[in-house]
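[audit] Reproducing an earlier prediction to check determinism. Same input, same settings, fresh worker. If the tokens differ from the archived copy the diff job will pick it up downstream; this log only records the rerun itself.
[audit] input (312 residues):
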Amino acid sequence: MKILITDGMAEEAVDMFKKAGHEVVLDEASPERLLEIIGEYDALCVRSRTKVRKEVIDRAVRLKVIGRAGIGVDNIDIDYAREKGIKVVNAPTGSTLSVAELTMGHMIALARGIVQGTQGIREGKWLKKQLKGRELAGKTLGIIGCGRIGREVAKRAQAFGMNVIGCDPYFPKEAAEKARIELTDMDHLLRNADFITIHANLTPENYHMINRDAFEKMKKSAYIINCARGGIIDENDLYHALKDGKIAGAALDTFENEPPGETPLAELDNVIFTPHIGANTVEAQVKAGTIVAEQVLMALEGKEPVHWVNKP
């Protein structure tokens, strides 16, 4: 069978397909080209760049499975794929540690002005007096979404001496107690956290959930980090909250539109960025690639995948 990989994949994963006897084509196809060629393939493997919407699925006459080498599947129309009998599988555990570590990196960078200090040195400035930071120890971290990544962030934050509270309606009380996360509601989290980090999938219900009203509730000394999905934060409201001093700072790895182009947020000194690299480590790419390859192979062999996202 023919497998199309459009966003790159770990060599180890590609080798798995080849060893199973499949023909593999790597093609970073544009949306237009994808429409032209998708009809030739039995499987499609993507990351976050490639969008697999209705028009693509309608032309995928041979497609049996779509593999997402990562967690989020908001770039795939999973419901329409189900209607067409196409399985969608992912790799929910592949990037867990990498995203958690990046979150902690952003937290420390915000607390200690690391980005501003670096830029100052490049410009010949010695900002020692201006960059008075804060310790993480004793501060409260609010985690929105206590799934795999949220729990790994909690472990690392606790190692720094932070108190951890979380908001997640699907997180069992017993599991929260075991993870030493104090479950609370969103209002309490926003009002009491010194650092807020988002680790939730983007859904119609939480689109722009962090908006002007949310920023009004937050401490003026609070920082927010988003290594999940950009659409959860209203970026226009974030810009005004940062500019007007409603919150102290923000770190974004994800944006509502990627790449974001010329964003007003880039004008501000109290926000730092990374270009959606949460899962972009050597280790995460190997894990995500091999996990999703295993799932795709199961689907092609007529077996039931473990990580079948759009299972009826």
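[audit] rerun output stored. Observation attached for the diff report: The chain has a mean pLDDT of 97.
[audit] end
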